[in-house]
Amino acid sequence: MEPNFHYQIMAAHTDLQKKVLNRLREAGLTAGQPKVLDYLQEHNGVNQKAIAAGCHMEPASVSSVLAGMEHAGLICRQAEPGDRRSLRVYLTALGEEKAEQTCQVFASLEEQALRGLDESRRRELVALLVQVVENLKDEKGEAE
């Protein structure tokens, strides 16, 4: 059977996710938490809706992940001045430490995954994947 796109992209995603979780399990992280930590490292202080969009997660899933992260002391939520219903999510000192561990694991696995590709091909692959993600968004700019 000739390799096809959907199988290869699903296999790459599944294998990468397993490796990330295996390496970060010792750090006490669970599914969903590494990508939220990674996102918050660059976008600290955003609301839950922004996290859901930035991490390509359903809002209900983000709510569950954030509850676990708050319980573990990785994040804190603070009401936005003037709108107590709107909460901003911030990394705690422990969360920043775990985010850095996550970043190191991602970098290591990225290097493993891209082994044998020169810098030009790596940039091209990322550009192609960006186009694939854009193509899969609906007319409103959201993943279905």
UniProtKB/TrEMBL annotation:
GO terms assigned for molecular function: DNA binding; DNA-binding transcription factor activity
Keyword DNA-binding annotated: yes
Keyword DNA-binding part of the UniProt annotation: yes
Entry keyword set: DNA-binding, Transcription, Transcription regulation
Domain HTH marR-type: 1-134
Protein name: MarR family transcriptional regulator
Provenance organism: Candidatus Egerieicola faecale
